[in-house]
Specification:
With 108 residues, the protein is mainly alpha-helical. The protein has one domain (2-28, 46-105). 68% of the residues lie in helices and 0% in strands. The protein is built from five helices and no strands. The longest helix has 26 residues, at 48-73. The relative contact order is 0.05.
């Protein structure tokens, strides 16, 4: 998280960065533009890499979020000690929400 904050503060595009020389900028900009093509789901879905990626992340992250963290949030205990246990859970959910929304807003 600290790295992300530092990056957001100090990162500048090469055209705007004061320490990038003219020769470096020409070298950076000399790369050809990337061409992006749209790939239909019918080509992505049958590939084993797609299923391996989905099963890997689902087996770890989603099980922890759905079962372990959710059991702490659904406790009926309203004591201050119970509230202190819920702070990391709420933080984990909040970070995942911000990450999923941010991943859609700021594409690669």
């Amino acid at each position: 998280m600290v790295w992300l904050i530092a990056w957001l503060i100090y990162y500048r595009r090469p055209e705007q960065h004061r320490s990038v020389s003219k020769a470096e900028l020409e070298l950076i900009l000399s790369d050809p533009a990337e061409t992006l093509e749209s790939v239909p789901w019918s080509r992505v879905f049958p590939r084993k890499e797609t299923w391996a990626s989905r099963s890997r992340s689902s087996s770890r992250t989603h099980l922890v979020v759905l079962f372990v963290l959710d059991s702490r949030l659904s406790a009926n205990d309203l004591s201050p000690e119970s509230a202190a246990k819920r702070v990391p859970v709420v933080l984990a959910y909040s970070i995942s929400i911000v990450g999923s929304i941010g991943g859609g807003i700021f594409p690669r």
